[in-house]
Structures are given as structure tokens and as C-alpha cells.
Design brief:
The chain is α+β, with helices and mostly antiparallel strands. It has a domain of about 70 residues. The mean pLDDT is about 85.
């Protein structure tokens, strides 16, 4: 019965991913170490590891205003190809990707 408290259907393809882990407030070195440890785990075939961050437009805003904010996903070219439709990729490249049905 308790198992049901920790399992939930996500609608994702279980042949592509069977486990997801998230951490907050970690350094780049800690994220890299965690990704490498998952890759070294016996029985693990593929690890897609990335770091997400948010950037807000600088400026002075009213107390109840929310500054314009965007998300950034940092990863290897291999990881970014799993997450977005990108073409050629080399270390240091940047991309702008929008959801498939996003018209903005």
C-alpha cells in the first residue's frame, strides 16, 4: 500500500526513461558528479543529465509584478538532442527552442 504513495503514472514512454531525479541549489561540479555516478551505476544503459536555471530581466519592478523570466537548460550536445530539435552542435553552442505548438 505504501508503494502507491511513491509511484505515479507520468504518461511518459517507459522504454525511453524509467527514472528521473531532481536536485535544487547544486553547483555545476555537483551536478556533473551526480550524472557521472548515475552513468557508472550497474544496469544503467543511458543517462540524460542536464542543469536547469532561470534568468530574470534586471530592473525595478512593482512589488506585485513578476519580472520577465526564462529558463535555461545546460547539457552536452547529446543531451540537448534528446530534449530539443537541434542541428549541428559543438561545446559552447547555444540554442533557442520553443515548445512545438508555441507561436511566440
Amino acid at each position: 500500500a505504501m508503494n502507491a504513495d511513491f509511484n505515479r503514472m507520468t504518461g511518459q514512454d517507459p522504454t525511453r526513461a524509467q527514472f528521473a531525479a531532481y536536485s535544487e541549489n547544486v553547483t555545476g561540479a555537483a551536478a556533473t558528479s551526480t550524472i557521472e555516478q548515475f552513468r557508472a551505476t550497474e544496469g544503467v544503459d543511458v543517462v540524460i543529465g542536464s542543469v536547469e536555471a532561470y534568468a530574470s530581466k534586471p530592473g525595478v519592478y512593482a512589488e506585485d509584478d513578476i519580472p520577465p523570466t526564462t529558463s535555461l537548460t545546460i547539457g552536452t550536445c547529446e543531451t540537448l538532442r534528446e530534449l530539443a530539435r537541434i542541428g549541428a552542435c559543438e561545446d559552447g553552442d547555444t540554442f533557442v527552442a520553443h515548445p512545438e505548438n508555441d507561436k511566440d
